[in-house]
Amino acid sequence: MENQKILEAHERQLKFSRLLAKIGRNNPLGKLICLRAYFLDLPVLTQQWRDYLYVRKEQISDKFLGLDQAIIHTSYADAKRLVETVPQQRDNYLGPLKINARSFFLGNPLSLGTNGNEHAGIRALFFHALPKPEETTEVLATLANQGLASVAKQGTMNVKTDLPKIIVALLHELVFNLKLSEAEIAGSAAYSANLGLATVPNIVHNTLLRKKTQPHIQHRQRLIESYKKSPKYQEYLAFGATHQLNEQQVANSLFDMIHVAGTAGTSDLLASVFSVLCQNEPLRANVISEIDAVWNCQDTPNAQTLAQLQLTEKVILETARLYPPVRFLNQMSTEAMEVEIGGQRCPFQKGTRLVASVFTAHRDPKKYESPDTFKTTRDHSDILSWNGSNPERNCPGRALSIALVKLFCLYALKHYQWRSFSGGEWDMKKFAPFKPNLVLDGFARRSD
User: Fold this and answer.
1) Which long-range contacts link 205-208 to residues 24+ away (Cβ below 8 Å)?
2) Distance CA 411, CA 310 (A)
3) What is the spatial distance between Cα 93 and Cα 95, in angstroms, rounded to a whole number?
4) How far is CA 269 from the centre of its chain?
5) pTM over 0.70
6) Low-confidence spans in the chain with pLDDT less than 50
7) Are residues 304 and 412 in the same domain?
């Protein structure tokens, strides 16, 4: 029955595509049809996202329609080609979901969806604000250890709720030299966890969902005001000005960098690595042996320590392949096109959304042997988890994210312990943050 719904929803998309080919998508009627296509497909995706991809991939083709007439590409070759296309043209999307509520972003577009000089300036700002891990390893190590120590006080680690709080606090100290209060940490973690609310139109935010959305919007407003107290704030404003970014753009872009890309992405990856190591005892033992060989567990780890953790890095990369924090990458077509979908030639207009499905691309048997098997011996040089190698979109925080996960592994495995764990599986149905349901019971600092 579910499979039938998934395929019936696609048939509706095909009918919409033929209609849009006649009337156009940029006039009021075309926009209404696109909106209808989006919201008719949305429940299918959000409730059965993995089946949504694989049923259409197996019964239609490697390319099919989804949401607002987006062409979703599921093979590795097609996904890589999309990611490497230059120039990239974006719109206000987070994964496959459209950001309809600008109010959730204080009236700003999502910084990750900008184009042209603005996009180049925001990327330059991100590279400027994020520290180079090889130059700040000792600082990162101290913050990682402090984060784990804060969780140890409660005796249990729930990766879904605890890791985002640790990461968002850590990133604010790194980027702004700001130490958030417990209330601010909770507010920031809640903001990141509720980004799905931003897909609802503003009119709904201001009426039906006002009580639910206002606390998140107000938290963003207050926290951005607190950024102005940072000793680094004027430096960021001056740097942004050299790229024609005003104060509002600088402050909101840095908020997005921390809460959308940094906290959500890094905490999801770290949670998945913890789950992999919990469930694979031989692999965990090998990682601990590697740590013992390069670190005496007394001195603060340095850049050389991290560079020698080659197996640990392969575990991180293979985890990112199988459980990518970013499952979908978007761009817009810059010209009209005709695409074959399920044996039918379908015309599409300029501005059609093109989606690379990273999850299916990383499990493509044409690219990876036994793609669903966890193997640290793979070649990870061209995985798409950090948006590939395209200089227009490769993740500015890739090196920092990997370094942080290494450091958390170092301390968690050598300075901390837990009696048992529960869960550890990834939800392959509901479209929620791709984080396993893992709880470490009896989480505490080792006494030795």
Assistant:
1) 205/101, 205/103, 205/104, 206/103
2) 17
3) 6
4) 9
5) yes
6) none
7) yes
DSSP code at position 132: P
pLDDT at 30: 87
* pLDDT 10s digits, 96-130: 888 888 889 999 988 888 999 999 999 999 999 99
- Tokens at residue 300, please? 């603060």
At how many degrees (to 10) do helices 398-414 and 310-322 cross? 110
Q: Are 341 and 255 part of one and the same domain?
A: no
Residue 356 inside a domain? The answer is: no
pLDDT tens for each residue of 230-283 = 999 999 999 999 999 999 999 999 999 999 989 999 999 999 999 999 999 999
Give me 131's structure tokens.
């520290």
> Which domain covers residue 97, as residue numbers?
85-324+362-445
**Which tokens hold the place of 369?**
């042997």
Q: SS3 sequence, 364-381?
A: CCCCCCCCCCCCCCCCCC
Which has the closest alpha carbon to 323: 355, 368, 358, 370?
358
Calpha distance 96→318 (Å, rounded): 23
Q: Is 164 found in the same domain as 98? A: yes
Does residue 74 belong to any structural domain of this protein?
no
